[in-house]
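Thread amino acids onto this structure.
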């Protein structure tokens, strides 16, 4: 019910818009300047054909009502009834015939977008002009208002001029430039198109034209007989001839009206076979050929209007000539006739040129465009069809598209293969990372020591590691190390160093370094090295024995002071196989705490290229926030400070930290 209401509101809106536009355009027709004999130059003739196609039956009824409304303020008479009917037909016939006859483009839902559809539009415009004006003229002749040809000739010449040029241009502007969608009877297009169902429409169209021809011949013969077979200008003289109203004239008028009105009652039904999955909608966007057609018609219309304007100024608008020269009416008819002939000739030439243009340019470009769309939609498995191309530029475009598609296929295959390799490598790295994390010691459960750790590799695997182990009831070994480089090579070197270190835990700190150094130097083909700090905390003797192989100085909180645990600099492991490392000792107080870290902490870099630095690190450890917090929160405070400093900058190195204290 809601859909019906919306549709009804739309049709009512179409009706009033159509009536208003037609009435406004029809206002100048009552001026003397626009009178031609028994007819008028009606600018409103540009509107019915576009109104019928864009607004459908409601637009056609609006044109008829607009004509009747304007007649009420002009020359309202019994003839206005036939004017109402004629203007309704003028808009309704194009709407009906477009969706039924002349199935060009395989009867796809298209409007003026090619040479064939342009020819269809022009033929329908010409026929609707002739048919609707024939009904008007025949009706007026039946009621005795005007002779048939006294009204038919000038109205056809005038209306065909405005409709052929202005109406076509208006339709192209509205649909192509403003993108107004024409009215489409969607239910009609939901069924299969069967051409033979519209044979009756073809017969009625042909019958209408045949009756017009027969009536013309009959009237011409009557005129020649009346004029003793002499006529200098049969075309103009016919528009002045008032034939004796006889039974033949009556029959012709009745048959013309019946043949045209019969199309009103023929059903617009394609078939009863629904099209499965049919989506009734106009193509999105505007085709290239539509823009070309619009440009051609705009130019042709401007030339025709300018040409007509010149004649209007010279022969009609001059009041003196109009009052002294009785042939002005005939001159106007000849002018309109030759301008219409000029327009039809130009349009025919346009269609011929457009047909060649479609074959040589538009169709190949459309095929290439369709190929590109299908190439993507069909998973890069669509081949460019063979095209008849005469243009070297389009041939080059087609070759480039074909080569580009081939290159894309090869590239995608290469990327997919590389992605498989990378996925396999990533899986291996993730497995390696799990193994690497498994090498690290489990959390310490001790009554004498508290140890908290943090590690975050810059890549999936890294070269940092830490170690701790309670050697006996009173002693705890802590270690932190940083392998040069990052990634998988560093991780492998780290695993080897970690394993050797674990195997020598019972040695003193300097001897552990010496042993690990000897073994790694013997198997260091890549010339890698590792910085190591090892400390052994003794709760019984309250001492810390440590050795430092080129690692960052730890921070020690001891006896109320917070400072770097400095020692004599010594080389990292991996440089000199026979180097003897020094052992250092520090006395411990009750508030003892040791912070070990790698250079991923103090060398953390922000977006400005600044380092976190040793000073900022030491200041943090001296702060009240750090000292007042429990030891289990110290590493969290450190890492959050580093993250705040870097402010989202990419992590450039592995970050590892370990903090330990005696209970």
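Threaded sequence (663 positions):
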């Amino acid at each position: 019910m809601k859909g019906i209401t919306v549709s009804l509101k739309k049709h009512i809106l179409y009706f009033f818009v159509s009536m208003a536009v037609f009435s406004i355009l029809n206002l100048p027709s009552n001026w003397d300047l626009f009178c031609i004999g028994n007819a008028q130059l009606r600018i409103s003739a540009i509107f019915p054909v576009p109104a019928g196609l864009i607004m459908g039956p409601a637009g056609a009824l609006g044109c008829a009502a607009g004509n009747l409304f304007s007649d009420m303020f002009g020359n309202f008479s019994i003839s206005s009834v036939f004017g109402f009917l004629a203007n309704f037909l003028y808009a309704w016939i194009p709407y009906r015939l477009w969706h039924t006859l002349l199935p060009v483009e395989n009867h796809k839902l298209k409007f003026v977008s090619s040479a064939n559809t342009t020819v269809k539009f022009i033929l329908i415009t010409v026929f609707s002009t002739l048919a609707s004006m024939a009904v008007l003229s025949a009706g007026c002749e039946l009621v005795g208002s005007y002779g048939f040809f006294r009204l038919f000739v000038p109205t056809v010449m005038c209306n065909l001029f405005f409709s052929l040029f202005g109406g076509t241009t208006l339709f192209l502007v509205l649909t192509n430039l403003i993108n107004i969608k024409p009215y489409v009877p969607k239910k009609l297009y939901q069924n299969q198109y069967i051409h033979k169902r519209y044979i009756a429409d073809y017969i009625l169209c042909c019958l209408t034209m045949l009756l017009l021809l027969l009536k013309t011949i009959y009237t011409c013969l009557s005129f020649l007989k009346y004029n003793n077979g002499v006529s200098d200008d049969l075309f103009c003289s016919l528009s002045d001839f008032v034939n004796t109203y006889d039974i033949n004239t009556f029959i012709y008028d009745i048959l013309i009206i019946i043949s045209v009105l019969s199309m009103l009652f023929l059903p617009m039904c394609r078939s009863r076979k629904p099209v499965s999955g049919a989506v009734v909608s106009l193509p999105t966007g505007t085709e290239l050929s539509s823009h070309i057609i619009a440009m051609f018609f705009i130019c042709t219309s401007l030339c025709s209007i300018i040409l007509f304007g010149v004649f209007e100024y010279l022969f009609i608008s001059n009041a003196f000539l109009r009052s002294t020269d009785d042939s002005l009416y005939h001159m106007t008819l000849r002018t309109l006739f030759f301008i219409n002939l000029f327009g039809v000739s130009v349009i025919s030439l346009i269609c011929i040129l457009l047909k060649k243009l479609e074959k040589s340019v538009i169709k190949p470009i459309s095929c290439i465009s369709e190929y590109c769309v299908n190439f993507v939609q069909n998973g890069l498995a669509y081949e460019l069809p063979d095209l008849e191309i005469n243009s070297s530029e389009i041939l080059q475009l087609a070759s480039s598209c074909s080569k580009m598609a081939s290159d894309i296929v090869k590239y995608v295959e290469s990327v997919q293969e590389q992605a498989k390799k990378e996925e396999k490598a990533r899986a291996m790295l993730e497995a390696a990372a799990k193994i690497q994390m498994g090498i690290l010691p489990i959390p310490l459960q001790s009554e004498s020591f508290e140890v908290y750790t943090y590690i975050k590799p810059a890549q999936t695997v890294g070269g940092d590691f830490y170690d701790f182990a309670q050697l006996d009831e009173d002693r705890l070994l802590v270690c932190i190390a940083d392998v040069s480089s990052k990634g998988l090579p560093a991780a492998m070197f780290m695993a080897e160093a970690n394993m050797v270190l674990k195997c020598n835990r019972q040695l003193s700190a300097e001897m552990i370094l010496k042993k690990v150094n000897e073994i790694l130097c013997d198997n260091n083909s890549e010339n890698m090295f590792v910085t190591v700090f090892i400390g052994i905390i003794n709760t019984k003797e309250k001492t810390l024995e440590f050795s430092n192989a080129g690692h960052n100085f730890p921070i020690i909180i001891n006896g109320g002071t917070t400072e770097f645990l400095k020692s004599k600099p010594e080389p990292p492991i991996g440089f000199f196989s026979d180097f003897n490392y020094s052992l250092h000792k520090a006395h411990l107080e009750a508030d003892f705490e040791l912070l070990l870290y790698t250079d991923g902490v103090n060398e953390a870099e922000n977006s400005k290229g600044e380092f976190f630095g040793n000073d900022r690190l030491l200041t943090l450890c001296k702060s009240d926030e750090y000292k007042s917090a429990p030891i289990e929160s110290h590493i969290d405070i450190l890492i959050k400070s580093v993250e705040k400093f870097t402010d989202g900058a990419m992590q450039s190195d592995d970050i590892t930290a370990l903090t330990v204290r005696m209970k």
